[in-house]
């Protein structure tokens, strides 16, 4: 891949200056943005693209393209400048001129889906590094399945000091080093500057030693010596370990009076300094003007990629794996999955197993994983608790990537980001488990997945005080509300094995929405006693038990509390009170339904919500003023689950009492 | 401090076995818990306590005590066993027998405030390490203020593999290494086992090299060789760098058939294995029975501590710094603060500055920091954006800890945990800043602070789409709702400089509740135009503008949207519509008020909530069915703030239109 022999180094210097010019001009036009990183890393990025990267702007989805991640997302103008010059058809000069303006593709930070050639959304620091690790892992896993002919690319990421200070970077580099992800090359913009000033204000870690300790191949170069950068990338490509290249750079390189200072990090340079930079760099061209010969040099990169893609296409067309490869990249087979889930839930409705929903999840996964050969399970070191590993799922190891199960280690945050990376790479469908309380650890990556619309499945077990003795540090109380708050995220809390299977079906066939499955530690009885062709969980909430005659009260519950609602309805029935029971496994799907449909499900009678969590999120959607809620108002406690349910008053008896009070009060 | 010369090594061996016996017996009685870590680390902990630690169970709040943190919180029985034998009066055998039962002090994971001698709540892995870093920093900062006579103690923490895999550990060790916190000694339970099996399933990091890269003093010992452990602790005490002691241990040491395996990590050993362990360890005593001579040995540790405390007390009594020292440990001077805030807000009501609330926060801090000499500011590398540094605040550096400002680096998560540690240590009042969107990064530590009731102040600026061009990765949309969901956390979103100052007053005088201040990037007009003796923010929500005559509509807003509500009321007034405006800076405080008081504020007229965030949390407390809300329903976008407010329809015009619709609809 190395094109060093025929490099025109003078042209390459101008290619880099073109990035610098576009970055400072666009930031100036926006009166907002970050010129420092694009100007500092222009040489490194130019060498990377000019001599190594294999992409084709004419087909931004080409599966075997190299992946490029700008983890230092505030340096977005580096990406936009390059993508403009490479000739992406959605990145015209108008986009650069409208940097950071409403409706432009050139958002403040690079956003996946907003423009071609942006492999992942970055900005929150460290996320790009971990996501790139997921991409590099997916590449090797796909390679193990399809061989070098079809899968043989690299993942390059640029990160800054901030990315390396964030905790997620530790989780990611530790994981990548362990998995020996040699196809990953991390280019560190080692400029010694953060927003507050010099990095020595807050860190004195020897980053090179740190990466070496994690099993990485480490090099250091002058980031403005393009031949040295090229030699380092070439050496990195040859090494079987993931590579760090520490690129010593001057932030804002080219702005003669401000470079090397935190002043160039995140503010426009100003007209005077831009003029000085033009002189200093020998760049006499007008703002946003790129001379044809320099544009041609960039377009040559694209031409090289187009050639590679064409050759790859031929290999795919003649490959015996052709249809299997296309199938793995296509959307999951929803029809086959529906059939399998239908048969499975019909059987469940007969067998009515009393199992924890985490166990029910494993049972559903046995069905799912048989139908979808490209699911990839995993856990943050809670495999036996999360029940994420089905029969025959071999572990993905540094020496054999053909397996389907990933030991993410005690790294909830990186797990979520790595799963985003796997899903973004394409070809594999990742799901991974931890305790629901630790969704707080993975939350920044869950959010980014929701923003990007990446359909990852987060398996979160031990979903309430029902986990018992581990106590309030491990007991989710507010986590479901906090997850329901994230836009474009489906939060499921299924009540039994049937709903759990249905939730899996919805999660795995979602086109652009990640899901969280909140699952119980404790056993729960079957509540859906009839098989059916319809996935009722897709309704968000539905009437599980209707009354004969007008309802006196409606009990609405989720997950483990549906059992309590049913028991309360029994108690009330014995008292001659007609209580309907609504199961509400997914608030987001319910919210999407027409108000009249929702009203029909919830009824006009007094309502009681039951969920062993806080009330936030119930009012408005489920409850009206005067309706009641049984749940938690503060943190849990350490004790066996039945004692906790009694202690916090989350019982059928209390629900029945409250129902009688509401009914009396309404009379 | 080292007592090596007169150690009875045979007695010490039995002291360690006593921990093992109590741990396995208590877990067995609870039928739940983690015997592996207490049994594996019993030798290390015994040496630490027997020969080094200086605490006095008769005065668990003695300021100059050593701090001990069990970061591997699942090993809680190690703490409870030790504290029982040391003679803490709240840790009788009944507590051990009721391990993990309702109402017992012996929660599943150690909980601050549940029992004496527990310095911080642990369980979520890595938190203890970072919190210990905060304690160690606070010790040096207090030492810089009061000298060796009054402040001269150490912080010891035990951590497991899980703690070191979590990202927060990176942030914490990097920070501790940079700050050269030589009083911190971290004892790593290097047993090579995690829940899923051997650590080599998921990590191959050279931890010793990793810590060395971060500037730590590193040693490795056989964790069952007590003399080696003692020598290592002694060497660690001599070194100026923070110390890691890698203690090679056998998990579940003493259980002959199960030790060294992940089976002993988190499940009772069972009667047979416990019997075998008793034989293997030469421990013939009945369950929960500790021979008097062994108990005496443990009590000698306490006696040594009592002696040290007594000597320290004499030094304090005769110290010229006596009253200053006591004052810094006491609760903040609420009377002085009230007077200063009253004067300041009275001035503001006259001057009516149009400033961003992040700037208003800095202005308030100038007042606050003058009144409270022991506040300690900081930021996760966003000092100029968070406005957390007031005049004359010198940085805390590795060579001078007398300053009041901490450069936390780009480490939001560790910052929150370190602040918890500083607050738990006592003597200093920490606050620290980042962007509100990154509260997701620090969330696990914010939650732990709320669970513990540690009054830390989290300054979170750039609190909505109002931050503009940085786009949706940086724009909080759901974060305020997600923070409001955390129990025992006050979330403030002040509307102007007066409310910002009032929020600071409440946050700093809270006895056992942490706070989050959500502050705008953009300038906001003064909305409180009259000075007053009362802190109205303490009401949670209050009528900012009342109507003459009955209200036609009530507009309820927070923070930057109060300006919009006022403008809408003006528009409506011009149309002859009477609109009241309610400012609601703190939902949690409002929720505490009587329903009738809340009703009086919110009125019976139709209501419109205005907050440039999602609606979750508004219904029930603020809004009724039929009321309206103007805010966000999904992620933001990248553009200048005014364009975004127009784009998302968060405008006075829309509020006025909606008001008219509601009023028409109600007629």
TrEMBL record, chains A, B:
InterPro entries: THDP-binding (IPR029061), Transketo_C/PFOR_II (IPR009014), Transketolase-like_C_2 (IPR055152), Transketolase-like_Pyr-bd (IPR005475), Transketolase_bac-like (IPR005478), Transketolase_BS (IPR020826), Transketolase_CS (IPR049557), Transketolase_fam (IPR033247). SUPFAM superfamilies: Thiamin diphosphate-binding fold (THDP-binding) (SSF52518), TK C-terminal domain-like (SSF52922). Residues 355-527 form the Transketolase-like pyrimidine-binding domain. It catalyses: D-sedoheptulose 7-phosphate + D-glyceraldehyde 3-phosphate = aldehydo-D-ribose 5-phosphate + D-xylulose 5-phosphate. Pfam families: Transket_pyr, Transketolase_C_1, Transketolase_N. Binds 1 Mg(2+) ion per subunit. Can also utilize other divalent metal cations, such as Ca(2+), Mn(2+) and Co(2+). Binds 1 thiamine pyrophosphate per subunit. Keywords: Calcium, Magnesium, Metal-binding, Thiamine pyrophosphate, Transferase. Belongs to the transketolase family. Catalyzes the transfer of a two-carbon ketol group from a ketose donor to an aldose acceptor, via a covalent intermediate with the cofactor thiamine pyrophosphate. PANTHER family: TRANSKETOLASE, TRANSKETOLASE 1-RELATED. This is Transketolase.
